[in-house]
């Protein structure tokens, strides 16, 4: 065994990697020569230079191999002197085997070298045929694919269109005309997708007050005194729905269940205020003890004052008390109008409370004895804006005040608990339900925002768009899904192309040349309205006033009264007057600054064309504003605006006086800044 190991080790030393490679090359060359002689004997006669080159390479390789062999033999002789004779015999056998292997490898290498050195002239006919067959098969496959693609293109193309292919590799495909993208409808709750529709046309859908079931004789008499003979479509639908939920008194709704909340989305000037005033007044006629049972929350002081005025008109002689807390009086005076301290504790002085959210939270936290434990109706007017102000957390304060337990009597008979999951035990506990009534011209259709209000099985009333009364259910559902806002029926829209320099001149042209009266002009900021007011006043010839937060509540009230009486021709205002305020006699609205949102536009133009009357609305648009503005109206489903051009010749007569007014405006602004600094 030891001898075998030694011999194998010695053999490995002799045949190194370099020697093996050389031997393999030699064998390959020899094999290539033999094959070349057998296949092409005539190649020797010709004596081509390439064959001579191969012979020379073979000679060089053979010489190199001989020198390497000699060196190997010398090493072997030196090692044989040390080895035994038996080992020498085994080494000789191994050497012979290696020589045989080397010859075979050299032959293989020669064949490879000859194949590489062959010129294109010596390529076999078999190779040329195979290549020709491959190319023909490729062309057949390409033509077949071209025919299949052309047949598919013809099937895809509409009738009448043909595909012309001059080259099978170039194919013209058709049927790629632009198609209308289908609108993806959101998944909404059932009460949003299946609302109760209201007729939009007021004049053609008036309902006599005596045709509404369930109205109290006192309420009917009060309506006749105020010259109300017919109800608008919104009032004719909403009033019976609210009365039906309170027909069994304060504790139960229809059928003994908790009443559903009501949401109303109708155009401006459609009579939404009277739609909640009448049912609340009639329901509270049954009350015995004076407690706050109706709470109306509004975003602005002016709107709160307007709603309070409507309530006072219909509670006169009914024994009900209406109180307003909107910051127009001092906090102490408001407390005195809300609560009266007696020998038995505190007693409420209000049945109906009209307020703004900030002032309401102040009284809940600071006014001793003020509570909302008997609240039956929570009315949220201009609901979309009130939802935006939910960061003040006013609704959370209201709900906590409604369901707050009295400290002295935790086991009272009619303890109010915040409603949860309906069970047999909870249905046996009778308590006053809190019903929420939402009203807005731009009520949001976003379920995430409406969820903040905590509505209970709400019922939605929405104004129906123009169209055939025999429309399908899918088309009738479109307003509730798309969230389009309704505009007054008698409103006509225009837009005026202009630039920054011509805007004041166009306004002067409307007031002086066209002699528009009772024009309400809207700007986007308080400073812009004040500068425009100063500019028109310095120009002269126009009775102008401004309405913004720069004025005190008393000044704003006086300004609105003068405008309604016709003493003011132009009222320059911010969006403070755009929300809900009913200004009588407004014939024209001018958007001096284009509104940035569709809701702002709806509320601005809603100050005219109220109660079914006609009105005009003009919007001044710069060239840059036209495309996004039209896109905003188109997405909201509003009608297209008509273009109203004002020629430059009509404005030249005002340019000289306008330049003088500008210089006076600069002086007035400098004086105002100096007064502020001092």
Automatic annotation (TrEMBL):
<feature type="compositionally biased region" description="Basic and acidic residues">
    <location>
        <begin position="17"/>
        <end position="69"/>
    </location>
</feature>
<feature type="compositionally biased region" description="Basic and acidic residues">
    <location>
        <begin position="111"/>
        <end position="157"/>
    </location>
</feature>
<keyword id="KW-0378">Hydrolase</keyword>
<comment type="function">
    <text>RNA helicase.</text>
</comment>
<dbReference type="GO" id="GO:0016787">
    <property type="term" value="F:hydrolase activity"/>
</dbReference>
<feature type="domain" description="Helicase ATP-binding">
    <location>
        <begin position="253"/>
        <end position="461"/>
    </location>
</feature>
<feature type="compositionally biased region" description="Basic and acidic residues">
    <location>
        <begin position="77"/>
        <end position="86"/>
    </location>
</feature>
<dbReference type="GO" id="GO:0003724">
    <property type="term" value="F:RNA helicase activity"/>
</dbReference>
<dbReference type="GO" id="GO:0005634">
    <property type="term" value="C:nucleus"/>
</dbReference>
<keyword id="KW-0347">Helicase</keyword>
<feature type="region of interest" description="Disordered">
    <location>
        <begin position="10"/>
        <end position="169"/>
    </location>
</feature>
<dbReference type="InterPro" id="IPR000629">
    <property type="entry name" value="RNA-helicase_DEAD-box_CS"/>
</dbReference>
<protein>
    <recommendedName>
        <fullName>ATP-dependent RNA helicase</fullName>
        <ecNumber>3.6.4.13</ecNumber>
    </recommendedName>
</protein>
<keyword id="KW-0547">Nucleotide-binding</keyword>
<dbReference type="InterPro" id="IPR001650">
    <property type="entry name" value="Helicase_C-like"/>
</dbReference>
<keyword id="KW-0694">RNA-binding</keyword>
<feature type="compositionally biased region" description="Basic residues">
    <location>
        <begin position="101"/>
        <end position="110"/>
    </location>
</feature>
<feature type="compositionally biased region" description="Polar residues">
    <location>
        <begin position="87"/>
        <end position="96"/>
    </location>
</feature>
<keyword id="KW-0067">ATP-binding</keyword>
<comment type="function">
    <text>ATP-binding RNA helicase involved in the biogenesis of 60S ribosomal subunits.</text>
</comment>
<comment type="similarity">
    <text>Belongs to the DEAD box helicase family. DDX51/DBP6 subfamily.</text>
</comment>
<dbReference type="InterPro" id="IPR011545">
    <property type="entry name" value="DEAD/DEAH_box_helicase_dom"/>
</dbReference>
<dbReference type="InterPro" id="IPR027417">
    <property type="entry name" value="P-loop_NTPase"/>
</dbReference>
<dbReference type="GO" id="GO:0003723">
    <property type="term" value="F:RNA binding"/>
</dbReference>
<dbReference type="InterPro" id="IPR014001">
    <property type="entry name" value="Helicase_ATP-bd"/>
</dbReference>
<feature type="domain" description="Helicase C-terminal">
    <location>
        <begin position="506"/>
        <end position="666"/>
    </location>
</feature>
<dbReference type="GO" id="GO:0005524">
    <property type="term" value="F:ATP binding"/>
</dbReference>
<dbReference type="Pfam" id="PF00270">
    <property type="entry name" value="DEAD"/>
</dbReference>
<dbReference type="Pfam" id="PF00271">
    <property type="entry name" value="Helicase_C"/>
</dbReference>
């Amino acid at each position: 065994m030891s001898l075998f190991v030694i011999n194998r080790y010695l053999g490995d030393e002799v045949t190194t990697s370099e020697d093996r490679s050389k031997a393999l090359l030699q064998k390959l060359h020899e094999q290539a020569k033999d094959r070349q002689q057998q296949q092409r004997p005539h190649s020797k006669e010709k004596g081509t230079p390439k064959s001579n080159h191969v012979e020379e390479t073979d000679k060089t390789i053979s010489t190199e191999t001989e020198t390497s062999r000699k060196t190997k033999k010398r090493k072997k002789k030196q090692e044989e002197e040390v080895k035994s004779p038996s080992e020498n015999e085994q080494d000789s056998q191994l050497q012979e085997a290696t020589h045989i292997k080397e010859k075979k490898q050299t032959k293989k290498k020669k064949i490879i070298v000859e194949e590489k050195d062959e010129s294109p002239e010596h390529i076999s006919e078999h190779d040329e045929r195979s290549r020709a067959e491959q190319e023909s098969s490729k062309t057949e496959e390409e033509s077949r694919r071209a025919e299949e693609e052309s047949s598919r293109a013809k099937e895809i193309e509409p009738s009448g269109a043909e595909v012309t292919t001059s080259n099978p590799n170039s194919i013209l495909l058709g049927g790629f005309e632009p198609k209308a993208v289908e609108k993806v409808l959101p998944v909404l709750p059932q009460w949003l997708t299946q609302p109760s529709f209201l007729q939009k046309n007021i004049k053609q859908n008036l309902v006599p007050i005596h045709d509404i079931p369930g109205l109290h004789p006192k309420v009917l008499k009060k309506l006749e005194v105020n010259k109300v003979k017919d109800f608008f479509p919104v009032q004719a639908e909403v009033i019976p729905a609210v009365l039906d939920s309170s027909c069994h008194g304060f504790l139960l709704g229809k059928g003994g269940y908790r009443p559903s909340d009501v949401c109303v989305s109708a155009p401006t000037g459609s009579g939404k205020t009277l739609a909640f005033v009448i049912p609340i007044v009639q329901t509270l006629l049954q009350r015995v003890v004076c407690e706050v049972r109706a709470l109306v929350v509004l975003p602005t002081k002016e709107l709160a004052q307007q709603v309070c005025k409507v309530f006072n008109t219909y509670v006169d002689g009914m024994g009900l008390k209406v109180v307003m807390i909107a910051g127009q009086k001092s906090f102490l005076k408001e407390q005195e109008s809300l609560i009266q301290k007696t020998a038995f504790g505190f007693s409420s002085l209000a049945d109906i409370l009209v307020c703004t959210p900030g002032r309401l939270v102040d009284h809940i936290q600071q006014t001793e004895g003020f509570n909302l434990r008997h609240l039956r109706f929570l009315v949220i007017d201009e609901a979309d804006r009130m939802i935006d102000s939910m960061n003040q957390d006013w609704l959370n304060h209201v709900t906590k005040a409604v369901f707050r337990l009295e400290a002295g009597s935790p086991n009272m008979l009619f303890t109010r608990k915040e409603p949860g999951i309906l069970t047999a035990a909870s249905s046996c506990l009778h308590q006053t339900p809190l019903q929420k009534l939402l009203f807005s011209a731009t009520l949001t259709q976003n379920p995430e925002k409406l969820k903040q209000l905590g509505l209970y099985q709400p019922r939605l009333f929405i104004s129906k768009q123009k169209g055939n009364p025999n429309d399908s259910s899918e088309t009738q559902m479109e307003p509730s899904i798309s969230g389009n806002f309704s505009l007054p029926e008698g409103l006509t829209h225009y837009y005026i192309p202009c630039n920054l320099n011509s805007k004041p001149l166009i306004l002067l042209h409307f007031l002086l040349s066209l002699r528009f009266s009772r024009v309400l002009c809207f700007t986007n900021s308080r400073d812009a309205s004040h500068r425009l007011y100063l500019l028109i006043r310095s120009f002269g010839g126009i009775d102008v006033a401004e309405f913004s937060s720069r004025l005190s509540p008393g000044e704003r009230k006086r300004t609105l009264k003068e405008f309604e009486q016709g003493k003011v021709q132009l009222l320059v205002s911010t969006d403070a007057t755009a929300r809900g305020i009913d200004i009588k006699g407004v014939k024209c609205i001018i958007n001096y600054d284009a509104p940035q949102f569709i809701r702002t536009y709806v509320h601005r133009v809603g100050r005219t064309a109220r109660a079914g009357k006609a009105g005009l609305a003009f919007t001044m648009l710069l060239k840059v504003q036209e495309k996004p503005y039209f896109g905003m109206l188109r997405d909201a489903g509003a009608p297209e605006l008509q273009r109203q051009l004002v020629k430059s010749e009509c404005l030249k007569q005002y340019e000289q006086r306008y330049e003088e007014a500008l210089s006076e405006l600069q002086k007035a602004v400098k004086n105002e800044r100096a007064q502020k600094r001092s």
